Amino acid sequence: MPTETPDLRYPVGRFTYSGDDPAKRAGFIDVIAELPEKLRRAVQGMDDAKLDTRYRPGGWTVRQVVHHIPDSHMNSYIRFKLALTEDTPRITAYDEARWAEFPDARGGPLAPSFAILDGLHDRWTKLLRSMTSADFERKLEHPQNGVLTLDRMLALYAWHSRHHVAHITELSRRERW
């Protein structure tokens, strides 16, 4: 019987959303709060050769993944603030693949991205924990994904956090690092 090859793009599975669930918010916020430390542990002890290893064929290097996360999460934090201060703002998308090709992402040290993540996630977590149920019902309009609630955005970025840490930890497991 053939064994099924795992999809290395989605080590925690694809993002799914079953609707706004206030009972899950605290857990999603905890995932976001814990991301900087979990990411640090995932790359601990990696030398440049390991950091420059692609987590899958055709994928980003570990270094690019680490630098991508603050890029993405800064955008999300700003989107939360826009949705909390405007009525269904239309946000702009960004080309994350092209951002990952800039020299800072391809070869830069990790320390600046961790500094950004530490401050950003501290502020973002404080914001998220201060939000009311009505705040989580606020919406924004994404050019490709349509109108989204902040509840959905919270679930998405909790998944995003787990997704990218798993890219690194699964690579480490496969390579026996």
Describe this structure in words.
Helix content is 62%, strand content 5%. With 177 residues, the protein is mainly alpha-helical. It has a domain at 61-175: Four Helix Bundle (Hemerythrin (Met), subunit A) (Up-down Bundle), CATH 1.20.120.450. A two-stranded antiparallel ribbon has the order 1-2.
> Helix-strand pattern, N to C?
HHHHHHHEEH
- Which stretches are poorly predicted, pLDDT < 50 over at least 5 residues? none
Architecture of the domain at 61-175 in CATH? Up-down Bundle
Q: Kindly report the CATH topology of the domain at 61-175.
A: Four Helix Bundle (Hemerythrin (Met), subunit A)
Terminal CA distance reads: 30 Å
Number of helices: 8
Order of strands, main sheet, comes to 1-2
Shape category: globular
Please describe the topology of this protein.
Elements (H helix, E strand, L loop, with lengths): L21 H22 L4 H4 L10 H24 L10 H4 L3 H5 L3 H20 L2 H4 L2 E4 L3 E4 H26 L2
Antiparallel strand pairs: 1-2
Helix pairs in contact: 1-6, 1-8, 3-6, 3-8
Q: What key attributes describe this structure?
A:
177 residues, mainly alpha, Four Helix Bundle (Hemerythrin (Met), subunit A), globular, 62% helix, 8 helices, 5% strand
Q: What can be said about this structure in brief?
A:
This protein has 177 residues and is mainly alpha-helical. The protein has helices at residues 22-43, 48-51, 62-85, 96-99, 103-107, 111-130, 133-136, 150-175; strands at 139-142, 146-149.
